[in-house]
Amino acid sequence: MHIPYEEKFDWESDGNIITMTYDPIVREDWNEGFVYTTTANARISGPNGQVISMVDDDYSFGNPTFVITYFSEDDIMSTPPIPTLPTPVANAVILNYNLNHSTISQSDLLFSTVPEIRLTNDDYAALFGRFIKVRMFRGSNNLKVNFDGTIGSSADAATFRFNEVRFSKDEAKALAWKTVNFQFDPDWDMSENSQQLFLFTDHNLRTSAKAKFSAKVGFDFITKKPKAEVTGSVDVEVELRGSTFRSNSELSRKSVMAHIVGSTGLGTRTSNGNAYNIKAVGLVQFYFEHYFTDIPD
Predict the structure, then answer these.
(1) Is the same domain home to 122 and 194?
(2) Fewer Cβ atoms within 10 A, N terminus or C terminus of the chain?
(3) CA pair distance 165, 19, nearest whole angstrom
(4) What is the span of the domain harbouring residue 41?
């Protein structure tokens, strides 16, 4: 039992009248409900038991709506603590300007993070759902290494899973930023010419969702040196049980470094005094913060 937008209501003024609805629902996007009052005078003259023929998400946003439904154990568990960001090396500096990615040599370190994300609306939520549970994966290439430590003649796919992030429906409607401190890549070098960002939403489903897209390779297998240009690609596949695949975004190293700050259409997010470029994958928006360490050749 829950109230989808409980945090937005002033219960001293709004608490006298409440709508009750239930699961199973009549349709996927609406249900019927019943209005009840909680004060003595209203019980005499008020609309107790009055049928509301259509109770949808917009209705529950504007009127306190008490939903009776089934919750899994995962739905009622406490929200996990916000992860802290791994500490960059001591002499790392934050990149607060746009640059040509080829100027960052292979010996340098580029520690790329995603400090915050937000949902731009609550379309991923089920009707009267309590949370929207977002899960993202990074897909990249992994150069094959021979037994003697040298790089082989091809690359494999590699995937990395980020923590689940929960948004209340009110947070989604309010476009609230949530601190996630994802370590996107501990050293985004030129061989990872582009990477894929996969977006899923977790649900109580018995089926699995799959997605497969290509990540670009930037490595010359003849000269055995990384290259800023694309030399090939690998297929990156992700499968997640009990989920729905929502979207993907291919992130080229060249484009990401060229748009660290400033808007390219989605606006900016100011953090640490820098107006970072906002990017998106599906309905999720995010931005990068890069820590650069100049390692002498």
Answers:
(1) yes
(2) C
(3) 29
(4) 6-70
Q: Which helix (H) or strand (E) holds 271?
A: strand 268-271
At residue 291, the pLDDT reads 97
Count of the separate structural domains present in the chain: 2
**Beta carbons of 68 and 41 less than 8 angstroms apart:** no
Query: Beta-carbon neighbour count of residue 197 at 10 Å?
Result: 23
The reply to whether 51 and 100 lie within a common domain is no
Cβ neighbours around 186 below 10 Å, total: 14
Length of the chain measured in residues: 297
Q: Report the alpha-carbon distance of residue 7 to residue 5 in Å, rounded.
A: 6
Note if the bond before 86 is cis, omega within 30 degrees: no
Q: Read out DSSP for 125-171?
A: SPTT-SEEEEEEEEEEEEEEE-TTS-EEEEEEEEEEEPPPEEEEHHH
In angstroms, the CA 83 to CA 80 distance is 9
For 2, which DSSP code? B
Judge whether 156 lies within some domain: yes
pLDDT mean by block of 10 residues, the chain; 297 residues: 75 72 73 78 58 85 81 59 82 96 92 97 80 94 88 93 91 93 95 97 84 96 92 95 94 98 98 96 98 87
Contact between 111 and 187 (Cβ < 8 Å) = yes
Q: Where are the beta strands (DSSP E) in 4-121?
A: 17-22, 31-37, 50-55, 65-68, 93-94, 109-119
**Residue ending a domain, choose from 70, 85, 113:** 70
Question: Does one domain contain both 35 and 154?
Answer: no
Q: Are residue 121 and residue 247 in the same domain, yes or no?
A: yes
Residue 214 lies in a domain: yes
Residue 238 located in a structural domain:
yes
Tell me how far apart the alpha carbons of residues 91 and 189 are, in angstroms, rounded to a whole number. Answer: 18
Residue 131 one-letter amino acid: F
SS3 state of residue 53: strand
Residues 18 and 147 placed together within one structural domain of the fold:
no
75 located within any domain: no
